[in-house]
Amino acid sequence: MSETRKAGRPLSPHLQIYRGGMTMLLSIVHRATGIALYAGVLLLVWWLTAAATSDAYFDMVQGFFGHWFGQIVLLGFTWSLVHHTLGGIRHLIWDMGWGYELPSVERGAQLTLAGGVIITILLWVIGYGVMS
């Protein structure tokens, strides 16, 4: 007769076992920003289609992107693009065999997060500076 397993630790690890960390969070955010970039490309196609259609339609789309809600959408798209790119660079560094030590992994995660915010702010400051 086979013994039945007593309640205890599960046979395979799952989300209730792992303690979430910065790298786990950034892995999820990297996937989410990839999905957000698809939506951002649709907005770009909408803008380009409006530019090719008529002046009135283009003015309407420009009005959307100039509205505060449109600006927030564009800010989110910019951050998604920058953060996803930095995450990709971090993975490229890992693919080259560098940065596998735990302190390096944590530092890379912190730099990716901070760099995404800082570069996004810089891009928007430069953008508004050029518009003025």
Description:
With 132 residues, the chain is an all-alpha fold. It has one domain (22-131): Fumarate reductase/succinate dehydrogenase, transmembrane subunit (3 helical TM bundles of succinate and fumarate reductases, Up-down Bundle), CATH 1.20.1300.10. Helix content is 77%, strand content 0%. The protein has 4 helices and no strands. It has helices at residues 22-53, 55-66, 68-95, 102-131. Helix 1 (22-53) runs antiparallel to helix 2. It is elongated and about 70 Å long. The relative contact order is 0.10.
Blueprint (SSEs and pairs):
Blueprint (H helix, E strand, L loop, with lengths): L21 H32 L1 H12 L1 H28 L6 H30 L1
Helix pairs in contact: 1-2, 1-3, 2-3, 3-4
Main sheet, how many strands, which sense, barrel? none
CATH top level class name: Mainly Alpha
End-to-end separation: 81 Å
How does CATH name the architecture? Up-down Bundle
Q: Can you write the helix and strand succession as a string?
A: HHHH
User: What is the CATH topology?
Assistant: 3 helical TM bundles of succinate and fumarate reductases
What is the beta-strand fraction? under 5%
CATH superfamily caption: Fumarate reductase/succinate dehydrogenase, transmembrane subunit
Fraction in helix: over 70%
Kindly name the structural category: mainly alpha
Q: Radius of gyration, rounded? A: 22 Å
Number of domains: 1
Poorly predicted tracts of residues: none
Number of strand elements: 0
* Shape type: elongated
DSSP summary: helix tally: 4
Give the overall average pLDDT.
90
